[in-house]
Write a sequence for this structure.
């Protein structure tokens, strides 16, 4: 049996939602071990001077706790 934990993070990218998701998962893997999944809770964009500036995702990362 395994026990998992979920933590919420936000990530941004000037390129796309996909790039923001990848950046968030890559960063989570630097700190968390046994990352098993990700749920995208919310997506939005940042606008500056009437122009699209960044793509932002809020996500929940699931990782399995070690014994």
């Amino acid at each position: 049996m395994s026990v998992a934990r979920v933590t919420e993070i936000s990530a941004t990218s000037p390129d796309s939602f996909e790039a923001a998701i990848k950046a968030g998962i890559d960063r989570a893997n630097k700190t968390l071990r046994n990352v098993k999944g990700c749920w995208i809770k919310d997506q939005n964009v940042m606008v500056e001077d009437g122009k699209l500036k960044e793509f932002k995702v809020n996500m929940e990362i699931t990782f399995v706790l070690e014994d």
User: Anything to note?
Assistant: The radius of gyration is 14 Å. The CA atoms of residues 32 and 63 lie 7 Å apart. The chain has a mean pLDDT of 96. The chain has one helix and three strands.
